[in-house]
Amino acid sequence: MAIFGDTQACPQAVRTAQNTDVLAHEATFAAGDEETAERIFHSTIFDAAKLALQANMQQLYLTHISARYTEEEQCLMLEQQAQTIFPASKVVGDFDVFDI
């Protein structure tokens, strides 16, 4: 398992996470908010999904979603954005529990 929090996309991340089964990654912003994410050193949904794909992951758990996305349909939209790149993506909340 690899865990990335409060970080921007970087080439070292792929090497670090290569071929681990599960990635938990901060994905504070939706696709399209790249400038904001870069300015405050966070990732977008697409950043996390691309890393999972490039590192040959099996499952991606998206965490640390911005408070601006509070509605269930907004979180579903974020999850669907990630799934366009990495189908095994899931938006999760604090204290969610999963068997891995």
Characterise the protein shown here:
- With 100 residues, this protein is of the alpha/beta class.
- It has a single domain (2-91), classed as Metallo-beta-lactamase, Chain A (4-Layer Sandwich).
- Helix content is 35%, strand content 16%.
- It contains four helices and four strands; from the N terminus they run βαβααβαβ.
- It has helices at residues 11-17, 34-39, 45-54, 72-83, and strands spanning 2-4, 22-26, 59-63, 89-91.
- It has a four-stranded parallel beta sheet with strand order 1-2-3-4.
- α1 links the parallel β1 (2-4) and β2 (22-26).
- α3 (45-54) packs parallel to α4 (72-83).
- The protein starts with a strand and ends in a 9-residue tail after the last strand.
- The model has no long low-confidence stretch (mean pLDDT 91).
